Amino acid sequence: RGAATGEGDANKRQVVVLGVTGSGKSTLVNSLAGCTLVRLSAEEADGLGVDRDSLRVQTPAEGGPREPVTEIGHGTESMTAVLRPIDIGSGEVVVWDAPGFGDTKGAEVNIANAVNLCKLLATSQAGGLVVVVVVD
Q: Are 3 and 97 in contact (CB under 8 A)?
């Protein structure tokens, strides 16, 4: 399947989650996939140097229903490097997790991600395209 074209998923609705780095895009994608979200413990938050209201996925070993479908970043360092489709367990929808606007990986990565997003927007057909913008 093409990284940004949705090939193989032509009959599914494409949902792209966009927003600035650190706004909660990957957290939303994990939630849409049925993951259980829990607050970081005080020790986890303090160890990462982030707010104690930050969330993480509860793993199956901890009683959660599934492993994370995409890594959640904490703080201003971006975790999602490229636009990629995520299987959320729906036969009708493909959710795309996108790097944040103002990504911390540099201008080249921002340009490449903009090109890939344009390709996805240009090739989405079938069930249409829904864009979700997460605002911090």
A: no
Contacts of 66 (CB under 8 A, 6+ apart): 33, 34, 35, 60
Cβ–Cβ under 8 Å, residues 60 and 66: yes
Confidence of residue 29 (pLDDT cuts 50, 70, 90): very high
Asked whether 88 and 33 are in contact (CB, 8 A), the reply is yes
Structure tokens at 42: 């005080």
Q: Which residue's entry shows tokens 């949705």? A: 6
pLDDT in tens, 3-26: 344 444 667 788 888 888 888 889
**Residue linked to tokens 């259980």:** 36
